[in-house]
Amino acid sequence: MTTYRSISLAIIVSCTLGACASNTASRMGTAATTPLSDLNIAKTDIPAVLARAKQQPYLIPAQQNCVAIGLEIKELDVALGPDLDTPVSEKRDSLMQKASAAAQDHAVGALQRTAQDLVPFRGWVRKLSGAERHSREVTACIAAGTARRAFLKGMAVAQSCTLPAAPLEVTQR
User: Fold this and answer.
1) Nearest to 57 by CA among 39, 91, 80
2) In whole angstroms, what is the distance from residue 145 CA to residue 125 CA?
3) Is 152:73 a contact under the CB 8 Å cutoff?
4) 37 near 131, Cβ under 8 Å?
5) CA 139 to each of CA 23, 50, 58, 117, 120: distance values in angstroms, whole numbers, following the listed order
6) What's residue 10's pLDDT?
7) What is the separation of C-alpha 173 from the centre of its chain, rounded to a whole number of angstroms?
8) Do 122 and 38 form a contact (C-beta atoms < 8 A)?
9) What is the rounded CA–CA span in Å between residue 12 and residue 24?
10) What does the alpha-carbon distance between residue 55 and residue 66 come to, in Å, rounded to a whole number?
11) Is the pLDDT of residue 69 over 90?
12) Residue 127 contacts residue 38 (beta carbons within 8 Å)
């Protein structure tokens, strides 16, 4: 009974404060499917660019020009999200928006913890089902993609490329 109450409360709080924004709904869906991930039924897809990066993170690109390097960096940005040197938006969130985001984060966290509790002996289940191995593979691909992006940005600096290929700090000097 308390499990359903926790899930219901998390969804209500999230929808009320965040007006069921698509990002929050997506995060809620991911949190709710945690037991399926633990059983290795629902797997996180690894983008091809990250899988290639894991195989050879420091491979020199076939075309070593600024356009080709910039395109590969953009492809990695899509898979990984913005890099550390990506400019931060000047738009500032209001206190209400910050409070809403915090409430959404707590609601998603509560739902995920509740969903995780549905699988008894979760650690063992993840190991036996192969979910733990897949999780490590995803983490390794993300790390390799991050290293690849940094390597390509270094190549861009060496060739005096402009944005988006070169890191922000180098191009603004």
Assistant:
1) 80
2) 29
3) yes
4) yes
5) 22, 10, 18, 23, 24
6) 47
7) 31
8) yes
9) 12
10) 23
11) yes
12) no
